[in-house]
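Lab notebook, design round three. We kept the backbone fixed and only want residue identities now. Task for the bench partner: fill in a sequence for the structure below.
Input structure tokens:
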């Protein structure tokens, strides 16, 4: 009896194995795994590692999965937007449609290649390089050309960065020139050039000295404590100043002379020493 039980068990063992194997195969069905990966990617479109897993999985599937109609719809729309785009900023709609196609079919090699070309046209060099790297994972026949295109994109990125830096420097220089040539800056430089200058009259030797934006009578400059000097000082307004007698004096544009009228109406010239 015991021998018959053992024999029966041995006969039934293959049947149990046969039942167990399909069940295990079903849980590791590539299509089901792919469907789950795609669903997860659609919840997190920026998960590049998951995209790479999807592409690697599809490489093992025979036959490979077809392209869903939804993906093809976005792909065709992207093509239409690309044909209408004329400047780099006009490619945004095409890029979005290619991305939508690649959410529905993340293994689609042609869509990655087309996306990279549109991103390049939009000057999005890093994005274009990332798309071509995904394209290379699909093991395309033109892998050599795709890799060379990545090198070109790296050069384009570097050239664009250099051009941006050059443009920024030129803009900074332009603004600096504008500031230096502004009336305020020109006047400040002119006044700075007068600081400390002494102007002497050839008639009586009376002198004036410019300090900052003020004019001092030099006949009092020998007093040792400036804080207690009792003479008048006059503020410079524009290129003129007026003394206590309301006589107006004009400083020349080149800062070489001061010209003013005396009480008697005569013109007196003070020459810079």
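Proposed sequence:
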């Amino acid at each position: 009896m015991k021998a018959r039980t053992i024999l029966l068990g041995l006969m039934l063992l293959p049947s149990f194995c046969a039942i167990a194997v399909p069940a295990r195969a079903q849980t590791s069905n590539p299509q089901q795994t792919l469907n789950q990966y795609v669903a997860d990617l659609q919840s997190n479109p920026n998960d590049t590692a998951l995209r790479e897993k999807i592409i690697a999985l599809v490489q093992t599937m025979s036959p490979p999965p077809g392209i869903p109609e939804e993906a093809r719809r976005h792909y065709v729309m992207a093509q239409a937007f690309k044909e209408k785009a004329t400047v780099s900023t006009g490619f945004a709609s095409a890029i979005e449609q290619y991305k939508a196609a690649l959410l529905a079919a993340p293994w689609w090699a042609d869509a990655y290649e087309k996306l990279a070309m549109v991103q390049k046209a939009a000057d999005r060099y890093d994005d274009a390089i990332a798309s071509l790297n995904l394209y290379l994972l699909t093991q395309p026949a033109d892998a050599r050309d795709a890799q060379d295109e990545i090198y070109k994109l790296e050069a384009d990125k570097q050239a664009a960065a250099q051009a941006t830096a050059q443009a920024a420097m030129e803009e900074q220089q332009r603004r600096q020139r504008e500031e230096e040539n502004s009336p305020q800056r020109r006047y400040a430089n002119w006044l700075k050039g007068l600081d400390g200058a002494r102007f002497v009259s050839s008639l009586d030797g009376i002198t004036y000295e410019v300090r900052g934006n003020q004019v001092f009578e030099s006949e009092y400059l020998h007093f040792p404590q400036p804080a207690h000097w009792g003479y008048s000082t006059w503020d410079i307004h524009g290129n003129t100043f007026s003394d206590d007698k309301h006589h107006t004096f004009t400083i020349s544009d080149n800062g070489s002379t001061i010209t003013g009228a005396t009480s008697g109406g005569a013109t007196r010239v003070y020459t810079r020493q």
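Keep this in mind before ordering anything: The first strand starts at residue 198 and ends at 201.
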